[in-house]
Amino acid sequence: MRKFTCKLCTIELMVEEQSVTPFHVEHSVCEICMGDIYTFLQSSHLLRNEELNLKLNLRKLRHSLQRLSCQREVDQTLERVRTEVCTIERQLEDSIQDYPSVSEVLSEYHSLIRLYH
After folding, report:
1. Full-model pTM
2. Long-range pairs for 65-72 at CB < 8 Å and ≥24 separation?
3. pLDDT at residue 44 above 70?
4. Domain-by-domain residue ranges, the chain?
5. Fewer CB within 10 Å, N or C, the chain?
6. CB 54 within 8 A of CB 27
7. What angle do CA 29, 23, 108 make, to 5 degrees?
8. Cα(5)–Cα(22) distance, rounded to whole angstroms?
């Protein structure tokens, strides 16, 4: 088994040693982030950079929240995230329906906030 940390979402993973190292492992990127990058490259909408950043930051947030032990730290982190998500939603306002994938990621943030609150 080989241990590596994803460069993008900072999650630690264990992978089996293989005769040929998979592309994503060779570049220290987890499969989920690699999938997001692939989707990013295929997408053509205007918010694709923002969508990719939202997905990566959501994954980092999940990983960070799992490691926090103090409820106060969790609450402070969630409040910052809630503020940012609301700001993004206000900026997108009427056009959010034009970008269902961005809307889906924002919905995941709301779910995570409810889960930890």
Report:
1. 0.59
2. 65/112, 65/116
3. no
4. 2-116
5. N
6. no
7. 35
8. 15
